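@channel anyone free to eyeball this complex?
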Amino acid sequence: MAASAAPDDTSSSASAVSIRDLEFGYAPGQVVLAIPKWHIATGARVLLCGPSGCGKSTLLNLLGGILVPRCGEVLIESISLGRLGSHQRDRFRAQHIGIVFQQLNLVPYLSVLDNLRLAIHFGRRKHPPTHQRLVQILAQLHLDAALFQERASQLSVGQQQRVAIARALVNKPELLIVDEPTSALDSDSRDAFMKLLLDCVAATRSTLLLVSHDRSLSKHFTETVDLRDLNRIGGTGDAA
Amino acid sequence: MLLELAGKSLWNRRGTVMLCVLSIGISLFVLLGIEHLRHQTKANFTRSVSGADLIVGARGGELNLLLYSIFRIGDASNNISWSSYQTLASDPAVAWSIPLTLGDSHRGYRVLGTDASYFKHYRYGQQQALELAAGNIFEQPLEVVLGHEVARKLDYHRGSRIIIAHGTGSTSFSNHDQHPFTVTGILTPTGTPVDQTLHVSLESLERIHQGWPGSATSSRLQPESITAFIVGLESRMQTFRFQRQVNTYPEEALMAVLPGVALTQLWRVVGVAEQSLLMISSLVLLAAMLGMTTMMLASMRERRSEIAVLRAMGASPAFIFFGVQIEAVIITALGVLLGSGLLLAAVAVGGDILLEQFGLYVGTVELTGRGSLIVVAAFLVAAVCALAPGIGAYRISLQSRLTGNA
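replying in thread with the prediction:
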């Protein structure tokens, strides 16, 4: 099973994300998502928008390997997630995909550094990032050294979001998925946050997929995609 | 990492976790304590009667005879006349005999009247004879040989003067003040009731009781009667013949018991209480474990988002499951530590009280087979109890989505 997860050598070798004939539904007979074809080029910065209920979260879970498509394939860095065992998928996610949620991104009772160390633990790199590197990442995100030993729950929402980016990028993932990161922030903080995020992504050379219903963010991205244009089921998904 | 995470997660909920540890610790303390007492009493009792073939006393309960003659628990219902003792002890089947007279005490410790044969023939543990740590046995009247603990606890040395009280309470009002005893010897520790006994000669007891209402008034120092005597036979083959001879002794209603048989009887009596105590304390432990399960199940609700974060980081559902299991194991381990600590402290502090009040000797805590079995069982029960929250966490982690706003 592990051997079958070899790189797919057809057309998608230069894609960070590649979707083919994807179909997914939670209940039998129901189809929430049906995406015939979608590619994200390596290094691209993509804004995925669409109203709530159109299947954005479902797509993220499919890309993160939490959900498995009913038919079709999801390839991340040419690896087909569906062909990996569940344990391998968890490990693949730890190593290759960074994920930042809207909020509650950290283990609340661990310190800032411990949250990063936990992510490194799951990443299981042969050469894990040094402490120096962690400090560097956190500094880049304008997090004061005084906060490093602070429990995550003690931080402000904005600080938590920045630590979450550090946590998501600490294993240098090829793909960074960010879900509605700015909805809890005011507009000033939002722009500052976006700038920091883009700087960090540039530093790690990760491909960025950001999900938001806020189209005003599109100026920061190389590409803006409306999920309703991708999803053939658009209408029925919206009904929920 | 799993261990560290579990530890920090528990620390985060240290209030409720501490209550869990407390309840598990206390129930384990009770369980281990009962087991310790059981083990200790059995070992002590068995240790105390080695080498004696028969114990002879006034007719009554076999168990009672064993308890008062060897363990200094309770009192004799009747005495044996000196002449009967002389007759029976001179039987050719008898290799040696030790006369025992009880009834007096000193600050809660029993005084035993006997003679030199006690130090020569009495055996404890693995057929060990009594040895003197200091001094020598009594030779003159009004000399006393102390058990090791009596000397240690009351800080007596050779030459110390002791007043013996009539009766066995620790606060007797009728003291034999006119007849102070002198300590001539102190025995080495034996881990048996001998350690808690003051040994005097039969003649001494006779002397201090002279003129005492209801006691002998003869001027001779020949005892009128004794409480019981221990018999060693020439050959084990003669045990039942001699026992029958004692039991059918025409002059007096006497009885001879085999210590082993009486002990078995004792275990039967004690066993029922022991089993029910063990069962009750096991149920208490189970209740504490279920309390832990409840606490962990309740915490699952608030841990949904934490599980989602861990999943996003790449933790497998198995990692989440084992995290919960390890939390249960840590709580139990802390409970075991607390329980054992409480037991050690209780034995150190309460051992003396038990000894003084009940004549119950509780030795140092050692890890017995059943004690460690209880600990292992506690861990197993904890692991089983943690299955419910563990499986709960596993299912949450399977259902958890990358949304973060759980």
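from a first look: The radius of gyration of chain B is 30 Å.
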